[in-house]
Amino acid sequence: MPKTEEEKIAAIIKILEKWPKDCPNRPTLIQVLQHPEMLHSELGDPGIATLTSTLGTVELYHIENPRETLPLKLGESEIFGKHGDIFQYGGDKSDRLDLVGFIDSSSEYDALKSTLKTMRQGQGANVIAVTVRFGASVYINSVNYWIGEIEIDPEAGTGVFHAHYRIPCIKRD
Amino acid sequence: MKVSVGTDVVGMADRFDASWGYAIADHPTFGSQIPAYITQSFKGELRVEALWTTDNVFHQNASPSGGDLPVKTITIEETDTTSPTPVKKTWTFTGRMERWEKSGQADQFVICRFVLHLNAEPTPA
User: How far is A72 from chain B (nearest CA, A)?
Assistant: First the structure.
């Protein structure tokens, strides 16, 4: 962690330089100095979420809603001829995480369509770890997930590379 | 000021208001109070108010032809009279006439107003 002011500014510049050059919402230095939470991390990862495996790394810079579901399987069965004698059972299922956000540049589009897809193809042997940050705090820290069916949904009336996405993740248990 | 619809001059144009631009959508992101800004689609309009004269035919432009309102070109010629030599500038607006108004009063003049829904940024020349 940077300690002196000089080290902090050096770390900020280092993170800013990792942002895609073609992103129109790439923060400026003055914005970041006023709102340091925009960088989400002082440790070097620029995105709100980072998906990484040995096959590559994808940074997600514009997550709107990292939605979590903690699913449960509940069921019951009745025994024929025995009124009121019901067998119930239940148990936790693997946690779900939906990364919902948008992209605003060509390089972010390529990262989803190419890098993340390659990582997904090899996720059996090359485990994908997901990190999600709220401001500067990491609250999902390098947890292993399966990546499901990725959706890219461009919006009418805006530029070519403005599209909403949804990346469903299922925790590897 | 001289307003023309195509080649027809609006003889007694009194006033015009034009506005145009691209909407900007704020997209908040998780964990940050500074949103991302997304430029959206173009929207603009030109409103003209004029005295109605009996030779005006501009109301015809607010009538669809083959199901579509015709695209009209409106030019507004401005003259800067405070310059030592009067300077003229002509702005060109294109779009469809989406609203037409005409109002009058007994023993008074008749006023017409129309709104051109722009299909491109206006250009000065």
Answer: 27
Mutate to test the interface with A, among B38, B40, B41, B43 (most CBs of A within 10 A): B38
B24 contact A CB<8A: no
Whether A38 contacts A25, CB under 8 Å: no
Contacts of B43 (CB under 8 A, 6+ apart): B20, B21, B22, B23, B118
Give the residue, A31 or A94, on which the prediction is more confident.
A94
Secondary structure (3-state) at B115? strand
* Chain B CB within 8 Å of residue A121 CB: no
Report the CATH number at residue A167: 2.40.30
ipTM above 0.95, yes or no: no
Distance between CA atoms of residues A82 and A118, nearest Å? 54
Total domains, chain A: 1
Name residues 44-63 of chain A within 8 A of B (Cβ).
48, 61-63
Say yes or no for a CB contact (<8 Å) between A35 and B37: no
Position A40 scores a pLDDT of 65
Question: What domain range includes position A120?
Answer: 5-171
* A25-41: pLDDT as tens digits: 998 888 888 887 777 65
